[in-house]
C-alpha cells in the first residue's frame, strides 16, 4: 500500500454503508440551513458562465448554432480550455461548500472564490477527467459512464487533500468503485429532478442545485472524512471540562 493508499485506508476499505434515502434526507436539511449562501454561490457561477459565454461569442463572432458548429477543432478546444480554466475553481469552491456544510462548518457565498489559487491544478483535473470520459464514451459508452460516476471526488481531493490532478483522479476511482451503483442511482434521481426543473421553467433549480452539492458533500465527508466542526453540545462539554480542570487546580 503506497502513501496515498494508507492515507485513505478507511475510504478504500468500502466499510461505509451508503443509504441513499438517509443521504438525501440529510442533504435536504443542509439545504434548508445553508440555502442563502448556496444559492448565492450558484448564482455567481451562472453569472460567470454567462459573462464568459458572451465574451466568447463576441470574440469568435458566433451568432447562430451553425456558426458554433462550424468552428475549427482547434478553436473548439481553446474555448473548452478557457471555460474549464475559468469555471473549475468556482465549481470546486461550491463543491467544498457542500463538504463544509456536511462538516458543520459555516459557509458564505464568498467561498466560491476560495480556490482561485488552485485554478491551474483544478482545471487540469477537470480537463483530464473530461478527456477520459469522452474517450470512454467513444469506445463503448459504459467505460465513459463508469468514469463519469467514479471521478466525482477528483476536484475535492485536489482542493481538500492536496493531491495532484492525476493522483486525485486515480484515488477517486479507487474510492468510488465500491459505490458505483449507488452513485448511478443518485445520478438518476437528479436526472429526474432536472425534469422537474425543466417543467418549472428553471425555478426548481433554486432547490435542486444546492441539494446536489450537499448530497455529494455528505458522500465525500462520510466516505473520505475530514475535519468536522464541533457541535454546540461538544463545545459546551469542552468548555465545562476546562472549567472543571481550572477549578480542580
Summarize this structure briefly.
By secondary structure, the protein is an all-alpha fold. The protein has 13 helices and no strands.
Supply the helix-strand structural class.
mainly alpha
Mean pLDDT: 88
Residues in helix, %: over 70%
**Any low-confidence stretches, pLDDT <50, length ≥5?**
230-237
Instruction: Output the radius of gyration.
Output: 20 Å
Total strand segments? 0
Main β sheet profile: none
Q: Compute the number of helices.
A: 13
Q: DSSP strand (E) fraction?
A: under 5%
Please give a structural write-up.
With 249 residues, the protein is mainly α. It is 77% helix and 0% strand. The chain is built from 13 helices and no strands. Helix 3 packs across helix 12 and helix 7 packs antiparallel against helix 8. It is globular and about 50 Å long.
Spell out the key features of this protein.
249 residues, 13 helices, mainly alpha, globular, 0% strand, single chain
Topology of this protein?
Blueprint: H1 3-7, H2 9-13, H3 20-33, H4 35-60, H5 65-69, H6 73-102, H7 119-140, H8 142-150, H9 154-161, H10 165-176, H11 180-199, H12 205-223, H13 232-248
Helix pairs in contact: 3-12, 4-6, 4-12, 6-7, 6-9, 6-12, 7-8, 7-9, 7-10, 9-10
